[in-house]
Amino acid sequence: MRHPDTIPEAIPPATAAPEKVDTSRRSLLRGIGLASVGAAALAAGCSKGEAIAAPAPAPAIPAVDKSVAIMGANESPFGPSPKAIEAMIAKASLTARYADDEGEELKKQIAAIEGVDPQQIFLANGSTPILAAFGEIIAAKGKGQLVTSIATYEGVPRSVLEYGAELITAPLTADFGIDLDAMAARITKKTTATYVCNPNNPTGNMVDPVKLRAFAIEASKTAPCFIDEAYLHLCDDYDANVMTSLLRDGHNVVICRTFSKIYGMAGQRLGYGIAKPELARQMGMATRMGGVNHLGIVAAMASLADKDFVPAMQPKFKAGRERLYNVAKGLGRKIASNPQASFVFFEVGMPNKDFADKMMAEGVRVVGRAWPEYDNWTRICVGEDWEMDRCEAALKKVLAV
Prior knowledge:
Layout: H1 27-43, H2 48-53, E1 69-70, H3 82-91, H4 100-114, E2 121-124, H5 128-139, E3 145-149, H6 155-162, E4 166-170, H7 180-185, E5 193-197, H8 209-219, E6 225-228, H9 238-241, H10 245-248, E7 253-258, E8 271-274, H11 277-288, H12 294-305, H13 309-330, E9 343-347, H14 352-361, E10 364-365, E11 377-381, H15 385-398
Parallel strand pairs: 1-10, 3-4, 3-5, 5-6, 6-7
Antiparallel strand pairs: 2-8, 7-8, 9-11
């Protein structure tokens, strides 16, 4: 299943300047290319000294392609941890092997951080397979029912519909947030799961943590409550909003995370879930398939060990989303309040596709699809400095009053 944010997009290749360690989303390919040169020399029978004395030519470094600013896929423009890059390069030659042992070690590390049993952790190649597998499970062969919000992430709702189950959605609040009371009112004996994305995609805002905890406890008495925390590390107060304690208290809740966002590994594909042991085992069987991305696991472990990385990324994302928010506000647009992820959601006064076409004419790619009942709204994510500059200029031209 393809990631919804990339369906209309083809990301152009690019790289950053070579004079410093490149932590951008493009650097890994270059790093692995360099590592493979030495590996090839050793595989050909050269000693380490011979490989150093007569290295193969390094691959050419492509110029940065600034033809299009990518502002629609919610990737991290700041790239992964340098320690993650180093770890992937060091382990690149081991990708011929399945990463079963490394996967078990990563599960132990995550469990220690979250304060749960390793049996409650399951891995996948990104969070999308987790959402899809959960949708299939709770669809109950077409007899299930998911209760969620309108204008939320499509992974679970789309999967439920594909497997023939019923989708029940609640409207947003007046300030474009998820309405937990409205969702609770729609839960019935037919309900087989509830889904809350927090921070929400595409609106970017969050629900009150006290209300979310109370909702999850009550909803999970009927069926599993799935809380998607893909963007949680980007919010202003992670500790106040993280919901892992619900699992420690024994509630029937599923937590989903990804290394694709703040950890800058969207192209490397590694996600994980936390659930009760039996559901975690079931989900793990559904998502693991033939194995999980080896280098993704290696990078994830290095990222978790880099305690300075997340605190360094958080203010960068905050500054970017505040800049986008202020631009939209300055143009007199309705905006989803208090964005806490890597994007803002606002009204553009025209069909979403028309807006996307006009932005593309200015060299800026935004989401080319709409959300039900929000056809005239768009979601724009934080980009690199040059992307932000171009996007701001394009917005002021396209949305000029």
